[in-house]
Amino acid sequence: MGLDAALRKGLDDRQLRLYYQPVVDVAERRWRGAEALLRWQHPELGLLEPSTFVPLAEETRLVVPIGDWVLREALFQLLDWRRAGVVPETFVMSVNVSPRQLRSDFPAQVRSALSDVGLPGTCLAFELTENVLLADSAQTSKVLGDLRALGIALHLDDFGTGWTSLASLERVPVDAIKVDRGVVGSAAGSEHAAAAISAICAMAETLRVPVVAEGVETESQLALLVRNRCRYAQGRLFAAPAPGDETEQVLALAP
Ligand code: G
Ligand code: G
Ligand code: MN
Ligand code: NA
């Protein structure tokens, strides 16, 4: 069986899993939300990371039914955490969304997931890459507008490579910028990367868009981010990606 058919079967046979990684509000020292991260518990190959199968899912459009599963699973998890009393109503669940998912019926799919689970759009953020958010396509703009109308936040993911697009953020409404872990990871040891962090934070502040730093692993990286008034952080320094029940225990404690 090819990987393609195996993934289709994996979806049907409930082999997909979500891991969660909390996001910290650095200024207030409390959990702000969590990012849902897809895994595939393959019967022979073990636990697979998204880089090994998400590109295939995108090519074959399996990413559409998989994305629907991810959204519903993440929303049910949020409902569980709310019921367990470990997260406030302001806690935001972030879900990664591929370009292929942004078809005209995507907002309808999202609306139906929200209403089935019984949660408002304001508890959700979608993480999109800059090629999607900044695409000059009427259909994409319409879909993004419909999602925002549901109260869903749009976050620019993996930021830090495409410099030209920072200026374009003025015409595209984003609710946060996620600085790529590659930039964060080299920031404490490289003046160049530290300057990149400063520039991104300064520009974001001017545009009044909050910054989420990804892949924060050390206190010195955190100190640099705090000096630059970066509001949110995510990384192993606070919590590694983990299954929902483990993350629930982490969320029950202070960051
Ligand atoms: O957990 P990990 O670092 O391996 O995730 C790497 C990347 O995989 C994420 O940054 C994201 O771009 C992608 N990814 C993770 N989960 C999902 C998902 O549910 N859907 C899609 N489309 N991509 C995901
Ligand atoms: O959406 P995105 O592809 O950026 O997903 C974030 C990825 O970063 C996840 O695959 C997760 O496994 C990974 N990750 C989470 N915390 C850390 C960290 O502290 N350091 C590094 N290098 N990677 C991390
Ligand atoms: Mn992401
Ligand atoms: Na990212």
TrEMBL record:
Source domain of life: Bacteria
Domain EAL: 1-255
Presence of keyword Transmembrane helix: yes
Keywords assigned by UniProt, alphabetized: Membrane, Transmembrane, Transmembrane helix
Protein name: Diguanylate cyclase (GGDEF)-like protein
Species annotation: Motilibacter peucedani
Lineage of the species this protein comes from: Bacteria, Bacillati, Actinomycetota, Actinomycetes, Motilibacterales
Residues of the full protein shown: 360 to 614 of 647
